[in-house]
Amino acid sequence: MRSLPSLNGLRSFEAAARLNSFTAAATELHVTQAAISRSIKALEAQLGYRLFERHANSLALTTEATDLLPDVTAALDRLAGATRRVEESRARPILTIGVGPTFAVRWLIPRLGRLQELLPDIEVHTATAGPSAALSSAWTCSVRLGADDTPGVVSVPLFSPLFFPVCSPRVASKLKKPADLVGATLLDVAHMPQDWQEWLRKAGVDESAITRRSVFDYHSFALQAAVDGLGVAIGFEPYVADDIASGRLVRPFELSVFKQSGWHLNFRQQAPHTPVFEKFKNWILKEAGQTTKAMRKAARVASPLARTTR
């Protein structure tokens, strides 16, 4: 444990030494002159040396006090600054968003810089949630796959992703047509098995013929496994754009499907809709609109079942 002298005594000493007056120190600290005198005497007893030479109409610092004063003043200033920063941070508006980990990493966080430019004085907290988690009382809002039908919660659609198979270039070199997926390892996401089912059905591939599958809890895990060459995953257009642009992932086929259930912004109907939240809501709806336009453009460019040039 630290061996510290009385902090109250140090405050009294610092104020009296800085102001060169017990009376002025008492006024600054909102105590009596007698209280200042008692605190300093107690501090002197702890330290084992005198701090002031008391004269009839003035005070003089002892040699020890002169050496001690700068460090005490600096320490008290640091304490005051630290508490002020905490108070100021607590006063800043906090926006807490409950969001799935893959959506956070692959869509929300890359766009937060633009939100910070729009709302520089707020703190954005992201709380990890399941992809279909109900709105928590601790959150300002949430983003989830599918609407939150909890009574009193408003769900506003953001966008529905475009999805298609993705894999590493090495794995893609063995896939000439969709039927070749029968001999590949499909990378599944536990809570979204219907994505592979729908894509395979539209591609005319018999799913029952596929015997090798790996299942992951989160979409981001399946995508990482695809990057590492472990198989073929379903990629959502907003999630895999950077991986495709960099060549970490490729699309072995160009058949794309729009997901039936999209992401929704959820918030309490009776909650106070502050200007900060309204700006956030407008911002995320605008970002979602831009994502939708980009996906529609990609869907128009792609020709069904045409092989991607690699």
Question: Can you describe what's shown?
Answer:
The protein has 310 residues and is of the alpha/beta class. The chain has 3 domains: 7-91, Winged helix-like DNA-binding domain superfamily/Winged helix DNA-binding domain (Arc Repressor Mutant, subunit A, Orthogonal Bundle); 94-161 and 261-296, D-Maltodextrin-Binding Protein, domain 2 (3-Layer(aba) Sandwich), CATH 3.40.190; 162-259, Periplasmic binding protein-like II (D-Maltodextrin-Binding Protein, domain 2). Helix content is 45%, strand content 18%. It contains 11 helices and 12 strands. It has helices at 7-19, 22-29, 33-47, 63-91, 101-108, 112-118, 169-172, 193-203, 219-227, 237-246, 275-301; strands at 52-54, 59-61, 94-99, 123-128, 141-145, 153-159, 162-166, 186-189, 213-216, 232-236, 257-258, 263-268. The chain has a 5-stranded mixed β-sheet. It has a 5-stranded mixed β-sheet with strand order 9-8-10-7-11, with helices on both faces. α8 links the parallel β8 (186-189) and β9 (213-216). α1 (7-19) packs across α3. The protein is elongated. The protein starts with 6 loop residues before the first helix and ends in a 9-residue tail after the last helix. Residues 301-310 have low confidence and may be disordered.
